[in-house]
């Protein structure tokens, strides 16, 4: 993903209009691009700044002047064209039908009979195709795609080349790289919500236990997968599970800490936000953490969230 497309997708993500299949590539780009990550943080900071600004209502004089200008603009509009008049007549005719149930029912019946007659006529005069030869072997899996079609000249013999989709399975330890890679794919390509939730839960349990989630390469990808689930998953239970897996790294990984702070400010589940607040106790002396907790403890609409933030801030005061 290029920086230009990433900056456009950041705007869509901010308004909740980014497709699900673009969220993971955008997250990977933001992790590796400092410039785009600064744009994203600046957008969040601007939203927080605007949220605390007072909203003023327009004055009565302004509203009255606006209505007068609107009336003048409507009076100065040019005469309607033929197409506009035709459209207006059509809507008036539809309104007349709405007020005449008997006529509407009659027209509906005529249309139904005419459509039924036309369908029967077409079916009776459509040439019948020869019955195809179907080859199927359930033990080899379903047909995934058709790769080629060849017709024998001057005959009706057709050769169709196709590929089968064969289900497979693998068994191994959670520390095995192949198993972990499949679990990470399970967070994106799961066929059911249960499989998706199980994939996140197994990855989170391994990270919470400290099993190879703090290195480079594939182990770092596991942490990135949990960060994506925390930020973008639609299931609150899955987001809370991802938090549990990220807890050991809130003190050492700035990305994890930023994701937890974003969760406190913007997550739609009160349970997830409270869980995120309790995770900040090891880093409660951090200035950015204290700033977010102060904002939430005084301005949040949820009393439980305000109280939880206040309790953590009291712990900071006792330490100092």
Tags for this entry?
320 residues, mainly alpha, Leucine-rich Repeat Variant, two-stranded antiparallel sheet, 14 helices, 2 strands, 6% strand, flat
Describe the 3D structure.
The protein is mostly helical and 320 residues long. Among the domains are: 172-249; 258-320, Leucine-rich Repeat Variant, CATH 1.25.10. The protein contains 14 helices and two strands. The protein has a two-stranded antiparallel ribbon with strand order 1-2. Helix 9 (218-232) runs antiparallel to helix 10. The longest helix has 25 residues, at 101-125.
Lateral strand order in the biggest sheet: 1-2
Distance between the termini: 45 Å
- Specify the overall morphology: flat
SSE string, helix = H, strand = E? Answer: HHHHHHEEHHHHHHHH
Number of helices: 14
Largest sheet data: 2 strands, antiparallel
Query: Which radius of gyration do the C-alpha atoms yield?
Result: 31 Å
Task: Quickly give the structural class.
Answer: mainly alpha
């Amino acid at each position: 993903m290029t920086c230009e497309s990433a900056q456009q997708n950041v705007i869509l993500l901010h308004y909740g209009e980014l497709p699900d299949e673009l969220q993971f590539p955008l997250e990977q780009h933001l992790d590796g691009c400092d410039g785009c990550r600064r744009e994203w943080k600046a957008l969040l900071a601007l939203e927080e700044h605007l949220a605390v600004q007072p909203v003023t209502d327009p004055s009565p004089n302004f509203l009255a002047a606006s209505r007068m200008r609107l009336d003048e603009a409507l009076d100065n509009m040019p005469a309607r064209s033929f197409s506009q008049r035709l459209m207006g007549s059509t809507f008036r005719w539809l309104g007349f039908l709405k007020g005449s149930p008997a006529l509407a029912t009659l027209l509906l019946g005529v249309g139904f009979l005419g459509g039924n007659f036309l369908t029967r006529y077409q079916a009776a005069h459509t040439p019948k195709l020869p019955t195809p030869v179907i080859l199927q072997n359930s033990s080899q899996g379903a047909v995934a795609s058709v790769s080629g079609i060849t017709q024998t000249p001057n005959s009706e013999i057709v050769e169709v080349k196709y590929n089968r989709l064969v289900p497979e399975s693998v068994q191994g330890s959670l520390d095995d790289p192949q198993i972990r890679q499949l679990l990470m794919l399970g967070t994106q390509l799961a066929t059911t919500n249960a499989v998706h939730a199980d994939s996140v839960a197994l990855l989170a349990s391994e990270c919470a236990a400290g099993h190879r989630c703090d290195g480079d390469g594939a182990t770092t990808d596991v942490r990135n997968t949990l960060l994506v689930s925390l930020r973008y998953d639609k299931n609150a239970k899955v987001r809370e599970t991802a938090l549990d897996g990220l807890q050991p790294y809130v003190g050492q990984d700035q990305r994890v800490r930023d994701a937890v702070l974003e969760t406190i400010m913007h997550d739609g589940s009160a349970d997830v936000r409270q869980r995120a607040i309790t995770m900040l106790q090891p880093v409660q002396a951090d200035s950015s953490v204290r700033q977010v907790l102060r904002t939430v403890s005084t301005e949040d609409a949820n009393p439980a969230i305000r109280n939880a933030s206040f309790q953590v801030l009291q712990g900071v005061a006792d330490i100092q």
